[in-house]
Amino acid sequence: MTTSGTGTGPTGIRLTAPAPGWSVTADVVVVGSGVAGLTAALRCAAAGRRAVVVTKARLDDGSTRWAQGGIAAALGDGDTPEQHLGDTLVAGAGLCDEAAVRALVTEGPDAVHRLIGAGARFDTAPGSEEIALTREGGHHRSRIAHAGGDATGAEISRALVAAVRTAGLRTIENALVLDLLTDAYGRTAGVTLHVMGEGQHDGVGAVHAPAVVLATGGMGQVFSATTNPAVSTGDGVALALRSGAEVSDLEFVQFHPTVLYLGPEAEGQQPLISEAVRGEGAYLVDAAGTRFMVGQHELAELAPRDIVAKAITRRAQEQGVEHMYLDARHFGAEMWQHRFPTILAACRSHGIDPVTEPIPVAPAAHYASGGVRTDLRGRTTVPGLYACGEVACTGVHGANRLASNSLLEGLVFAERIAADIAAGGAADGAPEPVPPAVEERRPPRALPLLAPETRAAVQRIMTTGAGVLRSARSLARAAAELDVLHCEATEAARAPGAAGGADVPPTSTKAPEPGVEAWEATNLLCVARVLVAAAQRREETRGCHWREDHPERDDASWRRHFRITLGADRALSIRTTATADFPPTTGTTSQPAPTPDTEPAP
Ligand SMILES: Cc1cc2nc3c(=O)[nH]c(=O)nc-3n(C[C@H](O)[C@H](O)[C@H](O)COP(=O)(O)OP(=O)(O)OC[C@H]3O[C@@H](n4cnc5c(N)ncnc54)[C@H](O)[C@@H]3O)c2cc1C
Ligand SMILES: O=C([O-])CC(=O)C(=O)O
After folding, report:
1. By alpha-carbon position, which residue is closest to atom 5 of ligand 1?
2. Contact (Cβ atoms closer than 8 angstroms) between residue 380 and residue 247
3. Which residues contact 305 (CB under 8 A, 6 or more apart)?
4. Does pLDDT of 18 surpass 90?
5. How remote is the C-alpha of 75 from its chain's centroid?
6. Were 22 and a residue from 186, 205, 208, 540 both cysteine, which residue would form a disulfide, CB within 3.0 to 4.6 Å?
7. What is the DSSP letter of 589?
8. C-alpha 48 to ligand 1 mean position (Å)
């Protein structure tokens, strides 16, 4: 067995996990403990597979816990999966894979009922046992189930964590997964991970398993202001790239239109004002108090998210201001308290009372519509490596995710993966035993210890150059600045005495292990560079990719996906493929090379 990662990241630096010092063996290792990871683990366990869940912080520390609006499914009278399909395809702006969307919307209602069976409690309509349903942007029907008013994700997380505990699943918390292990045939054989804090697993170790499910969530932390929690650093996408898997559609970062505006210097996770607030009748008004969405789209404030985010940005530019306002004073105190208690508390903690004043809002990075490319069974292009949830690109979201389809996608595709694993879809048999000489055979470590400041630098560069509004110029500047960061990091890594530097023998036991911050910063830089490369390539405006210099959607030239890998020559390669070819329907690595063009990255 050898460690993967012998190629270089887009940083050009060899990114290889340190050799494992301890190990655990399982049938499947699930990386991440949000809705996708926990559902996959529970389902695998129910099918008799030994599943281990590894997660970077605590079990409930991902985006799932923060989800507000709800989970979309055709649960209501008169609603149908077909109508849900239609709304999803429209939001996806011509780039959804219809087969994937069909799987989502037809399997969605039962998946939600299974979640309820697992213990999740959704709000019910007054005086009834029926699930209460609301609306969000892009949905022509009320089909969003919610819990605790605006605390849907917290309830889903609570229920799934409780189910995992009841099922007695093995979990390893505070463990950052570094890289994929592969066997001599290039098949998945587990992961290496770095456990923080005290405990029996302290330091770098490994979980050996023939199937790995990446469920690491999003990459919102690539930007300065995001709704995503601190753990959303794109680790799964970076790991997948290093292991040779394909990623796709990274340029489609969804900016949520209504995030509480806390000033131009605000950084890190920002409070979301759910789209469900607009679903219940809140208005967007500009600095002059005018409802500017009326007349812009048939659904006005409930237009798909990308359209609202663009309208807010445009109107703010016209008026020379930083934000717009969401006015829901007409809800009254009781409705605010009952329906949106979390948002009410968050606003008040920042000195804004939505009962008596409009809420200042601006777009912020919210969701990665692209990610690690999978087929309908959740298989990536590396045998035995699966991906589900926000880290994955199943083809469901196209160029822009429809509101509240994300939790649903996590459920449905996690279940599909578990079914595939249960049917023997991963590499056959147990992983090969680790040969004693693995320490000597691992590639030389040359991970630069990126300083924590690198994270903030990446975020500033990405926010300025690759944010909600982009252009060739802004993207070129971002690419150049990221290059500088990469070069500085490389130089620092080579400096005498640096961990992983040239003076540290590959097998040295004295070299300090890179810290979590170093891995996260490295992963952020890696995904930022790939994201910018994809955004530079897409010379049109589509879905949540908005190019100032190419303001129109161009189906003739760009109704395509970019499939991005790190080649054996260590260069980033970007291929384009037509929508109809996406994703593969048969599985793993034996796909014919897509047409038409294969080019080195810019
Ligand atoms: C504020 C907010 C509100 C939202 N509201 C909604 C909504 O109402 N409806 C909806 O459908 N969607 C919503 N979304 C999106 C949705 O919540 C997420 O897309 C979804 O929860 C992602 O689930 P996941 O399981 O893929 O990832 P997450 O829930 O983000 O979990 C990822 C997990 O991976 C772990 N992890 C990451 N990297 C590593 C690593 N290297 N090693 C080990 N573990 C790692 C994390 O610690 C975490 O446990 C919202 C998102 C946010 C941020
Ligand atoms: O509550 C919100 O607006 C967030 C949401 O639905 C989503 O991201 O799907």
Report:
1. 67
2. no
3. 91, 137, 138, 254, 255, 256, 257, 275, 400, 401, 403, 544
4. no
5. 26
6. 205
7. T
8. 26
* Helix, strand, coil fractions of the chain, as percent rounded to 5: 35, 20, 45
CA–CA separation, 204 and 19 (whole Å): 7
Measured between alpha carbons, how far is residue 84 from residues 78, 150, 366, 429, 478 in Å? 12, 22, 22, 40, 37
d(CA 416, CA 425): 11
Specify the DSSP class assigned to residue 173. -
CA distance 183 to 190: 9
Least confident of 5-19, 445-459, 493-507: 5-19
Pocket test for ligand 1, best of 157, 397, 406 (most atoms within 8 A of CB): 406
From the CA of 136, give the closest atom in ligand 2.
6
- Probe target for ligand 2 pocket from 35, 68, 359, with the most ligand atoms within 8 Å of CB: 68
- ipTM surpassing 0.90: yes
Give the distance (Å) from ligand 2 centre to CA of residue 402: 9
The answer to whether the CB of 14 falls within 8 A of the CB of 8 is yes
Could you report the per-residue pLDDT of 42-60, keeping only the tens digit for each? 999 999 999 999 999 999 9
Structure letter (DSSP) for residue 384: T
Helix (H) / strand (E) containing 292 = none
Q: Measured from the CB, is residue 413 less than 6 Å from ligand 1?
A: no
Is there an atom of ligand 2 within 6 Å of 400 CB?
no
The 10s digit of each residue's pLDDT in 322-366 is: 999 999 999 999 999 999 999 999 999 999 999 999 999 999 999
Collapsed DSSP state (helix, strand, coil) of residue 211:
strand
CB count, 10 Å around CB of 419? Answer: 15
Ligand 1 atom nearest residue 136's Cα: 8
For the chain, what is the total number of helices (H) and then of strands (E)?
Answer: 15, 25
List the Cα angle 19/24/26 in 5-degree steps. 125
Rg of the chain on CA atoms, in Å:
23
570 is catalytic: no
Residues 6+ apart with CB under 8 A from 265: none
Give the model's confidence band at 1: pLDDT under 50 very low, under 70 low, under 90 confident, else very high. very low
Judge if the beta carbon of residue 406 lies within 6 A of ligand 2.
yes
265: tokens are 């210097």
Which of 18-22, 189-193, 258-262 shows the lowest mean pLDDT across its residues? 18-22
C-beta 408 within 6 A of ligand 2 = no
CB 540 within 8 A of CB 557: yes
* Candidates 305, 373, 401, 442; catalytic one: 305
Q: Give the dihedral sign, CA 20/26/27/32.
A: negative
